[in-house]
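Lay summary. Proteins are chains of building blocks that fold into shapes, and those shapes determine what they do. In this project we predict the shape from the chain. Here is one chain we studied, written as its sequence of building blocks.
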Amino acid sequence: PPTIYTVQGVDAAAAAAAGGGGAAGGKWQVHLKVDTGMHRCGFEPDAVRGAYQRLLASGKVASITLMTHFARADEVEQDFTAQQIARFDDATAGLPGLRSLANSAGVLCWPAARRDWARCGIALYGVDPRGEHPSGDALHPVMKARSEIIVMLDADGSESAADVPKEIEHFPAFDQVNGARTSEEGTMKIL
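And here is the predicted shape, written in a compact code that computers can read:
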């Protein structure tokens, strides 16, 4: 579902649904993002109810999931995430809809953030946002990314990519595992 985080986004979602986009009947399932302190995007807490009502009034929304994004959930000694949870709960109190607060660190560190949906990101790749396996339990990636390096070029930094001679070298495939690319020839760390 699209994530709505501006008034223009509310209008665009309603217009797209009116044009036949979205689910059956032209109605959309949307996420309405609340800015509780990350300040990347989202409605300020005091504007959430107005945006929610405007989406409903469009007649083009089937369901609204209320969401936020944590800025510092991996810093468990800080209370900023607890403040974000409280801001979210205050801003969305009484509004119907599913809730989605927790990113990877939120799932692992903040039980109060576990609601209807979680949005694990980095943990899906086997990376623990808390650092080096603090509980003694290592996370494991749920997938592998596989690719091939098709070219490696040398440049001294004084020339642009267009100036570098194009000698193509083909390299065997590399598997990404826990932040490293491994092959039969050795390991190359991803920076």
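What the prediction tells us: The first strand starts at residue 3 and ends at 4.
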